Protein 1
Amino acid sequence: MNSTYIIRKVLRALLTVWMVTTFVFLILRLSGDPTVSVLGLEASPEAVEAFRAKWGLDDPVRVQYMRFFSNAVRGDMGDSILEGTSALSSVLSRLPNTLNLMFIATFLTFLIGISMGLIASLYNNTIKDKIIMVIAVAGFSTPTFVVAVVLVLIFSINLAWLPSSGSGTWQHYIMPILTMTIVEAAIFARFTRSAMLEVLYQPYVKTAVAKGLSWWQVIRRHALPNAAIPIVTICGFWIGLIIAGAVITESIFGWPGIGRLLVYSVKHRDYNVVQVIVLLISCTMVITNLSIDIIYGWLDPRVSIDREGE
Amino acid sequence: MEQVTEILEVKNLSKKFHLKKQKMPWQKKKYVHVLNDINFTVNTGEALGIVGESGCGKSTTAKIIMDIYSPTSGTIKFKSNELTGLKGEEKKRIRRNIQYVFQDPMGALNPRIPVVEQVYEPLIIHYGRNIKEQYQKAVSLLESVGMSESLGKMYPHQLSGGQRQRVVLARAMILEPEILICDEPISALDVSIQSQVVNLLMKIREERGITLIFISHDLSMIRHLCDSTAVMYMGNIVEQGLSETVFPNPLHPYTKSLINAIPIPDPRVKREDTIVEGEIPSLLNPPSGCRFHPRCPVAMAKCSKKVPELKILSDGRKAACFAVEKGVVQ
Amino acid sequence: MYNQKTNGNRIVIEKKGVKGKTYIIIFATVWLTAMIVIGFFAPLIAPFDYQKITLSSRLLPPVWVDGGSFTNIFGTDDLGRDILSRLFQSIRISLLVAILGTVISAVLGTTLGFIAAHFRGVVDDFLMMLVDFQASLPFMILALTVIAFFESSLLLFIGLMGIYGWERYARFARGLALSAEEQGYAVAVRSFGASPVRIYLRHILPNVGNTLVVNMTLNFPKVIMMETSLSFLGLGIQPPETSLGNMVGFGRDFILTAWWMAIIPAVTIFLTTLTMSILGDWVRDKLDPSLK
């Protein structure tokens, strides 16, 4: 695989991260004087002066930017206004909770989504296919919070089987994970199905069947590897989906993760925490997309070799 | 005697493209030298043919004349108006006189607009809207190229290749240009249609006295249609002159090999085989001196060091070859 | 082979399928038309003022539950406001935001795509950078960031929705314009003197048309979902204005005692986005199957 390809992708990724950092910085500057929001309107002139001096707010923008950047790189993102501790630690302490949810949900999503999609494609145009597709459309057309509310209604209120918020026991895991999985598995199912359909109707599949290979062999050796490319594409979507899903799901179920922290911090204007979370998410996505691009280059030789002027 | 005037003059035209394939932003860009100091003139009412193999630069020359690309250096004069620096209304007004017939008639037409509208669209652009009159003009023009009004109302995909080419031709004619440049006008057509279109072009030329420039790799068509011929190889004109001079007796080694390769349907006629070996070198790294020298059967030491200039010979033609100059080749 | 196994069933299912699908399309169209009509005439057809607080009639259930009455068909909320009226108004606001957002992002994205394709070079690179930027954050996160730092006003919110999805339009418009410019009719038309504006409006845009419409119909449910999600979190449309997401958000606190407050708007959202998705698929199949 072309090393030029990799280098260019990496450069692009770095550029994107830089852009997001700058964006976060700019937005803070544009949204008004933090002095007012932190100290309040009745602060005395001396307090304002001291605050401005402490945070270097009177320095030219360029200097502030450099300071922001160098601090960020060193991991100093300021303190959480609401908690008093460093914003970074505030975020990191909640990270494991979110990751728990995400891992399990991802695993289930892939499992259910892809197999549903496979089945639907193999039994194309039969009743199995139609049913799966109907469920899938319903699944991804429903906003996450609607699914969550309905689940809460059924399982917490009516049946009183599961707790409706908080975390701690395994029962607490069930509904949040269900919520996230339903929507995403639906999307995966649909996508896998169309990817497989494209491949299955290709001449080389018919040839393989005519040669006498069993269906399983055909799928394993011909169909799946070629369908793998669009499936890798969807992994690119997935990371964005699951993050957005986590934000809503955690908020609804009171799950102590980054998603809920983000919403809370936005509501209460805890800027530093918001900044940290945004940067974290952005880096994650950039790295994911980069990995996907590299996998692409490895899987599909057409992509990485001699591409004229992207 | 009729006054012979120059209508188009191309001088020192060069063009290089840079390779789009980017490596690292700090690596040097590579260039493709497509045209190398081209010079030629066209007289009013003349039919000039430009021939050569794929990649020799003939289409690029036409596109530069049409301002689809801009030249790296050199000038193009239309009736002593310098074309390259023009802007705005003046540009529109002068360039109206030079029109272009595309190689691929399907690609040159908008699939969603009926062809008659596409024929009179140039009129709208240059003279403002006057649909009734313009529609009539388009219809009569289409009829003069052999297409009925009802055909005009159809969409491109509903027409045959030959009909589409006529539409493109009509569209090029509607502004009543003085020069018509045809880029491989018949290569995309079925053989049976080709002669029809060729005759059509000849008819247009006779009736309207238009100057024609033909770009093609089809030597027999050029010989049939064109008064003069220019032969190009790797961005240079290697031989140029009246067709009746060049074709029977080509002098430049490359021209010789091209012309001798034209099949003659008479098995009794014997010809010397001018065997030219090898393939056209890459334009990224053209050979030094005369670009043909690596493949030339009569190459001399000088040929790899200096680029031969296009010089006028005794019979009125021009050739760029040291061997020809020396009289080695007859 | 799998085809043969179900051969018998297959023929029957296909025939049935065609009819079944048509019913669904009809239902979807009816529902959406109803939503649009309701949204348009909301202030006129609502039985009550959606903001009117009647503390004596708090938390009344819908008519089909014990204790409900036809006065308030869908019941009332915790401040005695009529849910049906609030529903109508919410539909109005949510649809308005979604339509405006879709149109703005389509126009914005397509224009940017054309501009990038036409000027190439630095302009194009800049656009690609913006697209990269957009792709590195889920839109929800981006929206939350902006809302965190600026006040959440209706105008800001519509602007945000107007940015949702622009990159898809831009990418497509740019691709089309690039291929059209490099060969074919755009070059031809330019060669006899057409101005770039004319080329875009008269020649390139109509070819974009179909796919543009399809993209818009596919995007519309997503915009609604984004808006309702943000409103649900309390960060979208703010009181005293109401939106479908708002209603579910506030209703959630009362889900034990007054489930209708959350469920009725939730069902409305579900049906609207579902029908819009179905119709979107159908439109796409009709106009531009290549997008499958």
Protein 2
Amino acid sequence: MAELPRYRRPGVLLAEFPRSDPVHIKEATRGSLQLNESLNRLSSWAYEQAAKEAHAAGEQYGAENPVTPQQLLDGTASLAQRGSIYGEAARGIQLDALTTDVEIEAQGRLSDIKGRAEAGELDAIGAMSEIKDVQDGYAEALRKVDPKASNKFRARVATAGNSLLLSIQETAAKRAIERNKLNVDNWIDTVAGDQVSPAIEAGDTVDPESGQRVTPADRLKLLRRTLVEATTAIGDPEYARGARKRFDDIVEKAQVDALVKVAGSPDFARTPDGRFDGVGAVARADKGDFGRHTSVYAAMPSDQQAKVRLAIRQASADRYTAGQHEAAELKKADELKVNQLVIEYPAAPPARKRQIESALQAISTTTGAITGAGINHLKESVKPKGDGTVKPNEVGETRLRMDIASGKIRTPEQYWDTAQRYGVSPKQVNEVFSFFITRQNRGEQQADSRLRTAAGIAPGMINPSSGRADAYISLTRQLDTEYSKALKAHQEDPKVNPAPDREGLAEELVRRRQESPKQKAIDATLKGLNDQWGTAGTAKKTGVTFTEDMDVNEVRQALTKQGIPKSNIESIIRSLQSVEAQRRQLNDLRQ
Amino acid sequence: MQYVFVAAMAMQAMGQVQQGKFQASQYKAQAAQTRLQGRAQAVRYEQQGNAVMKRSMEAQAMARARAAAGGLDPFSGSAQFVQTLSAQDAAEDVGILSDNAQLARLGADAQAQSYDSAARYARNAGLLAGFTTAATAAGQYGRLYGWGNG
């Protein structure tokens, strides 16, 4: 049987479930997102605006409800709450205003501190404590409400407080310095009156404990050291210089006053009749001999020494005029002459005796170095007595005078020995002793006169130049040194070493000085200057006489006035300066 | 300057509204097209079903003819059985194709509805965007110039 055809299935399958694309959801989502975005923008903007309004409102509230510094310190400060724009803004404004007020109040308190410190009511330590109180008090109170504002306040007030403290410390330091200066000034004034003058006037003394010599310079050095320490501690070099100079000026004046006072005393130089000897005082001062005060004078610079000498001369001149000085010097010369004549008289032949008597009469009527009674006594002393013999004591006295006059007797010891050997009575010994002294003085006077002449100091000259005074002092010191040496040698061996003669020594000294290479160089330089530019100068007659002790400034002025070329003037000045230098070397005892 | 600002903001708002409308139109067009495609697909399935029915009928006819030609009763026995099988198979396929057509129609409708909804959303979104832009602009304008100051 044929197979019956049947329906063949083509393999139809159920179609896939149609896949739907949820476009509406996507669109809804997209729309929502877009809307959300738009709303975000809108709300952001709205929030921003609202925040601004809240901020402004907060600031308004803060401004209308300020907190005072006192409330802050009392702990009753009511600040806006944190956590909102409104609150933060309000709080910020309140804190700003508060910080400003606190700073103003702090500044006020600092100003008050400054004022009290400047008025001296508050010292630096007290000020520091109060500044710290101001700073810490407010800063601590502020810290509780706003640490940042507290830190800011602390920083600002610390800066102001530090500068204030610095200013107060500087003021205090200045005040302390001023006070110290005042103390030093008072010290100087007090010391000047109470200690300087007594320290100088006491002269050289011996410390009873140590046995060491204490000079016024030692005492002044101690005082000056005190001053130096005090002024150094002040730390003001200019003031220190001024104070030291003031002290030095006081010392200088006190030294001059003390030496003038010493030299003005009759004890310093007196006439045989016990009065003050002005000429003798000047002469002694010129030699730098101030007894116990010699060290004071020796330590003074030459210009100060010149001041002392001038002051002594002026003080002396207050008592004696220049004419009286000259008269006194003439009288002294006459006294020497009288002594010479009196010594010569006993042994003189009659004719000579008459000459001597006439000369003595003349002196008695001029300077009065011998009186008429004295002349009569002289005449009587040589007249033969009664039996024509000369009393032994009178012979002895004459021999004694002869020995003194001849220089055989040089020391008091020799004098007394000789007088005893000649059998001279004590009364005569006393009378003749004044002759011995005068004779001794004669040598001294003549030596002094020689030295003064060599130094260029004319008789009666009130104020010799510094150069002449230096030369005179140098010569007298050399004379004293050499005389002391010679006297010592004589005392050790009288047979080999004759007794020293001051006059002779002075002569020798002056001769050596004049013949010294330096003096010759000085003379040659001056001669050259005088030959070329002096009163009869070959280059120009200037009318100037060049000497050792000229003031170069005066010379420069004089020569400039006369139109001398500057180069020539400078050359002349250099020559004079060379002379001055050589003269200084010549006067320097160390040379 | 404020006029430029107002004009710019207005144009931006209008643009956003217009954009929404355009988007909605586009979705509407897509919805229509989707529906059309679904109908076309359903018709294609129905045509396939018709073809299946036709082939089934042809097979039954041929079976009856052959049975008759072979001397068999075309309406009983195996001949009847073979025809019944063909009819059952064809009915099954036609049912599947009919379901497919229904699915195509329903799926397209669902998609089209989605596009319709998307169109509405797009239009509304455009409107809202335009509104928010306008509102923001109004606020900014007020912030800038203040109301009543212009």
